[in-house]
Amino acid sequence: MMENYSKPSVSHKIVLLGDMGVGKTSICNRYYSGEFSGTHEATIGGCFLTKDVDLDTHIVKFEIWDTAG
What we know:
By secondary structure, the chain is mostly beta strands. Helices cover 14% and strands 38% of the residues. The chain has 1 helix and 3 strands. It has one helix spanning 24-33, and strands at residues 9-16, 46-54, 59-67. A hairpin with a 4-residue loop joins strand 2 (46-54) and strand 3 (59-67). The N and C termini lie far apart (31 Å).
């Protein structure tokens, strides 16, 4: 995605917490890529993703932290 510097931006950090096997990684991947898989390897340590959402008036930058359960 190309950066659009003509709009103001705001950043938000999202941290997914929960027990092992509850679907944190599935939720993260579904939002990030639009794909869903019911099975995943266990997350070791954590996973970090970023996603920019371009709205009419500004850009929202999400930092998504997927933690190990």
